[in-house]
Design brief:
single chain, alpha/beta, globular, binds oxo(2-sulfanylphenyl)acetic acid, binds manganese (II) ion
Length: about 240
């Protein structure tokens, strides 16, 4: 994260996320002769980050729904990676449907309960913040889950959560969906998680790796920047 890390831009009537800011306290100098350290500030949903169920109004009464109360065993789970980089490259509004997921399952087997579903779009290769957010007059254009896919994953597959490479877990145009922001609304309403701004998904297999994402333990946090690590088999 740095001051240029792109963050979500909501319409002006809504509250704003802070950009990342770093301020040096000392660097082996008169302010601290033997030590280097910084203060930093940022929104909870900055850079690669975790979305807790309490983030959305639908998840506000879920049990153990915040960064400091989520059971630690839920910070590690198997991953299913669905590669739609070709489709997303051709269409920034690409939406992953239950049909796509069922074709993936025909090859890799059924998504097991408690798994992450991670959508690989190669969107994180867009280094330029403008291209990454892809904001137009009618809002942002970024791939995400189709509104029909979210209840399918939450209820019929009982996944632990949904991860994507864009600035948020939902598609850029998800404010127009029914319900609006289905991935936030339905996933968090089912006490499930989100991971956003994931990178390097091309380097893990479609199935067989595990994902760890221990979020910072901020009190009643709605989410947190985190390093999401994939554990892959050694052979
Ligand atoms: C707040 C409001 C809408 C959205 C978001 C946050 C995110 O994408 C997020 O980072 O959770 S869509
Ligand atoms: Mn978020």
């Amino acid at each position: 994260m740095d001051a240029g890390t792109p963050t979500i831009a909501l319409p002006p009537e809504f509250g704003k996320i802070w950009p990342f800011r770093l301020e040096e306290i000392s660097r082996y100098d008169s302010r601290g002769p033997a030590w280097y350290w910084n203060n930093f500030s940022c929104g909870e949903h900055t850079g690669t980050h975790f979305d807790a169920p309490i983030h959305w109004v639908t998840g506000k009464d879920c049990a153990r729904n915040a960064t400091d109360t989520i059971p630690v065993e839920n910070f590690f789970a198997p991953a299913c990676v669905i590669d739609v980089s070709r489709e997303a490259g051709a269409d920034p509004d690409f939406l992953l449907t239950p049909q796509h997921v069922e074709s993936w399952e025909a090859i890799h087997g059924r998504i097991e309960a408690g798994s992450w579903v991670l959508m690989r779009t190669d969107w994180s290769k867009r280094q330029d913040a403008g291209a990454f957010l892809n904001m137009k007059e009618d809002g942002s254009h970024v791939p995400g889950p189709h509104p029909d896919l979210v209840p399918f994953l939450a209820r019929e597959r009982d996944v632990i959560g949904w991860g994507a490479e864009g600035v948020g877990t939902d598609a850029g145009q998800a404010h127009r969906f029914d319900p609006p922001f289905p991935c936030h609304s339905i996933m968090h309403g089912s006490n499930k998680f989100g991971l956003a701004s994931l990178t390097n998904l091309e380097s893990i297999a479609a199935k067989g790796s595990g994902v760890s994402h221990a979020a910072a333990e901020d009190c009643r946090g709605s989410g947190s920047p985190c390093r999401v690590l994939a554990l892959v088999s050694g052979d």
